[in-house]
Automatic annotation (TrEMBL):
Residues 216-371 form the RNA-binding protein Tab2/Atab2 C-terminal domain. Coiled coil: none annotated. It holds the Pfam family Tab2-like_N. InterPro entries: Tab2-like, Tab2-like_C, Tab2-like_N. It comes from Cucumis melo var. makuwa (Oriental melon). Residues 97-199 form the RNA-binding protein Tab2-like N-terminal domain. This is DUF1092 domain-containing protein. One of its GO terms (molecular function) is RNA binding. It comes from the Eukaryota.
Length: 379
């Protein structure tokens, strides 16, 4: 079984079936899978031949804490903030940031929840945190804070900033727009999401104002799936699987060719998977593969989920947009196959992929997205 964990060395701590249209249409499930490896109804994966597929400076907290606490000499102060830029990284190369601006399960001396700005890039070469009282939360505060990060760390303002909370979209969008930065609502902030999980354990729970059992103020949305837009329709799809070595090859192709898609920093994620481990995926075939892949490329694709209760596939994109991507006829066989695919995804720690092809029999991809299901952050 694959194991995924946040790579601590990168953190600077202070310590076909038919696609759904207006009326779902489906064809026999077994006919949707030809030469690609498929999942058998008994939940096992068949073994047929595969197709190719720290801190430069640390300042004291700007938010008062309820009381003084004594820390061991070998412990870091959780009330401190971080401003770090990897000395071996060219500042000009950091063109995209990931940002979260939200309350934390920490109370200040007024008994109010402390807010925190957390910023990084996808390689964690840039890491920044800053606490704020809850009475200064607006787009002006955020705009000025973004500017101060660039000035303090000596980096240019980013071209893009990704964020994953729909409730903060107005404030973040306004702050970014005033600075000439493109805001991108996206759950593909995986470095940030994993860092927040790590900070919850190593920083927030050790903070003197920590409130155990406090629920996130801005919980992530999980809306009811909508009908798929016409420009995202495919013609056929199949559950497939690839050995991890082949997945890595497709990732390399993304960097070397003009193929559409997106990868993940597997080293950062601390993924420990043998090259022969089978990674589950979804192959979508259509005669208009190029335009479909181009449209998908701008969707911030996050995950694909098999919903056995509705007998459909759910495509998650952006922050909180979910589409009924495809449907199938619900039978014991198709349900078992969908459950087997989800089980394989779970065994890989949520790692899976989406491939766009001209034909399911093709050995080439027009688009390839490496995806990772992650639980919502604890804050």
């Amino acid at each position: 079984m694959a194991t995924l964990s946040f790579n601590p060395t990168r953190i600077r701590t202070l310590v076909g079936l038919h696609f759904t249209k207006s009326k779902p249409i489906s064809s026999p499930f077994s006919q949707s899978i030809k030469t690609a490896n498929r999942f058998s109804a008994n939940g096992r994966i068949s073994q047929q031949p595969l197709r190719r597929f720290q801190s430069n400076s640390v300042s004291e907290s700007s938010v008062s804490v309820p009381e003084e606490v004594e820390l061991n000499e070998d412990e870091d102060d959780p009330t401190l903030e971080m401003a770090y830029l990897d000395s071996e990284t060219d500042p000009e190369s950091i063109t995209e940031w990931e940002l979260d601006f939200c309350s934390r399960p920490i109370l200040d001396i007024r008994g109010k929840k402390v807010w925190e700005l957390v910023v990084c890039d996808n390689s964690l070469s840039l890491q920044y945190t800053k606490y704020f009282p809850n009475n200064v939360i607006n787009s002006i505060t955020l705009r000025d804070a973004i500017s101060s990060i660039a000035e303090e760390l000596g980096v240019p303002l980013p071209e893009k900033i990704r964020f994953f909370r729909s409730q903060m979209q107005t404030i973040i969008t306004k702050a970014c727009t005033e600075l000439g930065i493109k805001p991108i609502p996206s759950k593909r902030c995986l470095s940030l999401l994993l860092w927040l999980e790590e900070r919850y354990e190593t920083v927030y729970t050790r903070h003197p104002g920590f409130q155990k059992g406090s629920k996130p103020l801005l919980a992530l949305d999980n809306p009811f799936p909508m009908e798929l837009p016409e420009n995202l329709f495919g013609e056929r799809w199949a559950f497939v699987q690839l050995p991890f070595s082949a997945v890595q090859e497709e990732i390399s192709n993304l960097k070397e060719t003009f193929m559409f898609g997106s990868s993940l920093d597997l080293d950062l994620l601390g993924i420990d998977i043998d090259d022969k481990t089978m990674i589950p995926g979804l192959s979508v075939a259509t005669s208009r593969a190029q335009p479909l892949a181009a449209w998908m490329n701008g969707m911030e694709v996050y995950s694909v989920e098999a919903d056995t209760s509705r007998a459909c596939l759910i495509l998650s994109v952006g922050i909180a947009t979910r589409y009924v991507y495809a449907t199938y006829k619900k039978t014991p066989v198709t349900t078992a196959e969908a459950e087997a695919w989800e089980a394989a995804k779970k065994a890989c720690g949520g790692l899976h992929f989406l491939a766009i092809q001209d034909d399911l029999d093709s050995e080439d991809c027009v688009g390839f997205w490496l995806l990772l299901d992650l639980p919502p952050p604890p804050v």
